[in-house]
Amino acid sequence: MRLAEIMALRQTICAGALVTLTERCPLRCAHCSSSSGPSGRELDGAALVRFGRTFTSDCRPEVLMLTGGEPLLRPDLVAETARTARVAGVRTAALSGAFFARDGRFPSLIWRAVRELDHLSLSLDVFHERMVARADVFQALRALLRHGIATSLHIAGTGRDDPYLVDVTADVTATFGADVPMLVSEIKPIGRAAGWARATPLADGAVAPCAMAAWPVIAVDGAVVACCNQDLVDGRVRPDHLRLGEITTTTWPAVAERANALPLLRMIRTVGPLHITDRAGAAGAGYCDTCHRLGELPDAAEWAARAGSGPVGELLQAAAIRRGQAGGPSAMVRRHGVGRYADLVGGQE
Ligand code: SF4
């Protein structure tokens, strides 16, 4: 499964789900959005596998994206999750910091898990390179390609003029051509980067649909939430309008039904939280922070219920999603990643 195929699904509601297998990671990158380190909570693996058995051939995500922390710290669970998901036709990808590649090769336990995957993306940036050499990551990519396992790089930097991004993207292209697509993103002021990375603020009231509210996220405590906002995933905030269930007590069809039908969530995808707040006559305070507070604003819930319910709400949401999908994966990266490198995501051929 190519990176472009995964990205093409990213704005389709419930076409994918992200799964936080663990908060642990043996690396300690200075920009880590989840502030992961050597200790942390683990997802209940048995509950995840039971939840995966509720996927059916006509109600399932297309792809599960396993993340962390470092998902390959739990290789047996990676393999079992991928095998379980495959029964219903779901493909599985993982995003790894490539900690295992330090000596340039895959340990056998990790290799067995990777062989069950449909895609493995590795992280590469100036911070990861302080702990895992670029040459070792390239070695791991060669092994994946030799065995026909689709791979890609998640590369992060400080923006279009970051000299590191210029250098690393040229190096990957010269070494692998189009065989290793790249998703190049800007480091956001989240997690360990909260104190130093910069955000681009949006004007109050802006119509700015949220593209991240399409795929449910299974948090490490088993909660299923509506998006990958780190405060929500870590459980620092859990407003009702962004909660979709718990893997111990719900099924994928129930999650998908709630994700599709909640009026407030529909309008977050259609016009974004700042516009909803504006329509409710309240002031915004940051994009996601405003979103977290929407349930506390009765006028916002009332407006969303009027605009987002029933077939009309469904049509408005579908039109917004179509606009977001126009131009394919590279257009999406142009809007949400570092535009200069958008075409490296692949899929233009
Ligand atoms: S705007 Fe809301 S739904 Fe979108 S990423 Fe932020 S918290 Fe999640």
Please give a quick description of this structure.
By secondary structure, this protein is of the alpha/beta class. It has helices spanning 3-8, 45-52, 75-87, 108-114, 134-146, 163-176, 230-234, 252-261, 263-270, 273-279, 287-293, 298-308, 310-325, 328-336, and strands spanning 16-20, 63-67, 91-96, 119-124, 151-157, 182-186, 217-218, 223-225, 243-246.
Question: Helical segment tally?
Answer: 14
Binned strand content: 5-15%
Mean residue pLDDT: 91
Distance between the termini: 15 Å
Helix content: 25-40%
Query: How large, in whole angstroms, is the Cα Rg?
Result: 20 Å
Largest β sheet strand count, sense and barrel closure: 9 strands, mixed
Q: Can you characterise this structure?
A:
This protein is 38% helix and 12% strand. It has helices at residues 3-8, 45-52, 75-87, 108-114, 134-146, 163-176, 230-234, 252-261, 263-270, 273-279, 287-293, 298-308, 310-325, 328-336, and strands spanning 16-20, 63-67, 91-96, 119-124, 151-157, 182-186, 217-218, 223-225, 243-246. The protein has a 9-stranded mixed β-sheet with strand order 6-5-4-3-2-1-7-8-9. The chain is globular. The mean pLDDT is 91. The protein binds iron/sulfur cluster. Iron/sulfur cluster binds at residues 210, 212-213, 226-227, 229, 232, 268, 273, 287-288, 291.
